[in-house]
Write a structure and sequence with these properties.
alpha+beta, Neuraminidase, five-stranded antiparallel beta sheet, globular
């Protein structure tokens, strides 16, 4: 009996030590920096601290009580435009003032995929996290029509516009009696006339997309000239741990040419691009991107950036141009750092920056929010303390560049007890110039505006003169000497 007692004691000690070790590893990393310090044009980037277990701190959604609303910035008011929706994500305003919303969740897992035991464990953990965060369950797979018929600022009509052919739908665009929809696995085109209450025609498939994955949303934006669709596709993993073969066609923005009916990879190395919009100053495409996890609560900040054609942003090997992620096992392509671009503006660590719109002509947000970008920060699940859970404004200067720190527009989604009333997901302009914000876990669309603001003027497009063509070769030494002598002569005259 003494022998078995010793064995039991030994097993108890081993279990106690194992439990203590697991608690130590799983307790997570507490941030040293504020969200503001890791945001802006010059974010503070600490040395990465690779984690074996992710930091986990999920704000469980508890909903909004009757009469409750987020806190709006001074001078703004917020009301409910629509409610009672099942997990509304992306919003899209049609030219006639109707608003479309995708009711959607992640697609069903096919199971039996690659990645081995670690991928299975990650999937199990992800399922638990989704359940606690209010994102679990089957996708409704619907696009609903929201119509404010009397112009009073709330939608009297809420009607299912489309559900046939949808599979975890996200991005939408409309042009020439055609509604374009990005499912998680394909871009479809449906015949649709403005003002109709239903989509009844048979869709055309424009292009396949990599299905599902760790990031399944597929936002879409049509180019200002109407010739191209831009589609954002996130990665299947955190840092390519399932092998780069699983990332084929992912972590990038695709361009589909509506005239030639061909697609190309427009920009790559973007772990999880989401919001898409075109700069009113330059016409250039911008996006919000969710960066990698498990380097600590202060890394890596999500970002807002312009996206020139052919751009490379470094994922998974590099972040913020100068920082190598040594955890990545896949060989890094040659000259990767030389080709990698630095993101323009940090949104803060783990804030989950999603929906993006630039200020537009006619908006009624007031002078404090006259010329910049509005961004929904969905909120962290892996930072202590939590970050995001708000809508912010990023001011842009006269040259079309972001400046300063994010300015709160809607706050108090997150409660002091660690639960959250909702999670802001997307932003879109209503026809009357108010800002619409989808709150997916609460099932509400919020409407934000300044009741005293006049419709804003449009942002003037920047126009630059082309450099004169070089008509012949010049000796650089001679040119330098001529410029130097000319400068010295000017100083002597003064």
């Amino acid at each position: 009996m003494a022998f078995f007692r010793k064995i039991a004691i030994a097993l108890g000690i081993i279990l106690l030590l194992a439990g203590g070790a697991f608690w130590f590893l799983a307790r997570g990393d507490t941030a040293d920096l504020s969200v503001e310090e890791v945001a802006g044009t010059e974010p503070v980037l600490q040395e990465g601290d690779p984690q074996s277990f992710p930091t986990v701190q999920i704000a469980e959604p508890v909903g909004w009580k009757a009469g409750e609303a987020p806190t709006a910035a001074e001078g703004l008011e917020v009301v409910r435009f629509a409610e009672g929706l099942e997990h509304p994500r992306i919003l899209y305003a049609l030219p006639n003032g109707d608003v479309l919303a995708t009711l959607t969740r992640a697609p069903k897992s096919e199971g039996g995929g690659g990645g081995g035991i670690m991928a299975t464990i990650e999937g199990w953990i992800a399922a638990i996290l989704f359940e606690k965060a209010g994102s679990a369950g089957e996708s409704p797979n619907q696009i609903v029509l929201l119509r404010d018929e009397d112009g009073n600022g709330s939608a009297e009509t809420t009607k299912v516009l489309l559900e046939e052919g949808l599979d975890s739908p996200s991005g939408m665009s409309w042009q020439d009696d055609t509604l374009y929809v990005a499912n998680h696995n394909a871009v479809l085109a449906f015949p649709y006339t403005l003002g109709s209450d239903a989509v009844t025609g048979t869709p055309r498939k424009l292009m396949d997309l990599p299905a599902g994955g760790n990031h399944w949303m597929r936002n879409m934006e049509i180019s200002p000239d109407g010739t191209s669709l831009f589609v954002a596709v996130g990665s299947a993993s955190n840092i390519g741990e399932q092998g780069m073969g699983a990332e084929e066609g992912r972590a990038m923005i695709w361009e589909y040419n509506l005239e030639t009916k061909r697609q190309r990879q427009y920009a790559v190395g973007l772990r999880n691009p989401n919001g898409l919009d075109f700069s009113p100053w330059t016409g250039e495409l911008w996006t919000t991107v969710n960066e990698r996890d498990m380097l600590g609560s202060d890394l890596v900040p999500d970002y807002l950036t312009n996206v020139p054609v052919g751009a490379q942003y470094g994922w998974p090997w590099i972040y913020y141009k100068e920082n190598f992620d040594r955890r990545v096992e896949a060989p890094m392509p040659k000259f990767m750092q030389e080709y990698t671009r630095k993101p323009v503006y940090a949104m803060g660590p783990h804030v989950a920056a999603l929906g993006l719109v630039f200020a537009r002509e006619g908006h009624v947000m007031g002078e404090k929010f006259a010329a910049g970008a509005f961004i929904a920060r969905h909120g962290s699940w892996n930072r202590k303390p939590p970050s995001g859970y708000d809508v912010v404004y990023v001011a842009f200067d006269k040259l079309g560049n972001p400046a300063g720190k994010p300015v709160p527009v809607l706050t108090d989604f997150l409660k002091a007890d660690g639960t959250t009333r909702g999670r802001p997901t997307w932003v879109e302009w209503a026809k009357d110039g108010a800002l619409l914000v989808s709150d997916d876990t609460a099932g509400i669309i919020w409407r934000v505006r300044s009741p005293t603001a006049s419709p804003a003027p449009g942002i003037a497009r920047l126009v630059s003169e082309k450099l004169p063509p070089i008509r012949g070769l010049k000796d650089p030494r001679k040119t330098f000497e001529e410029d130097y002598l000319r400068q010295q002569a000017g100083q002597q005259v003064n």
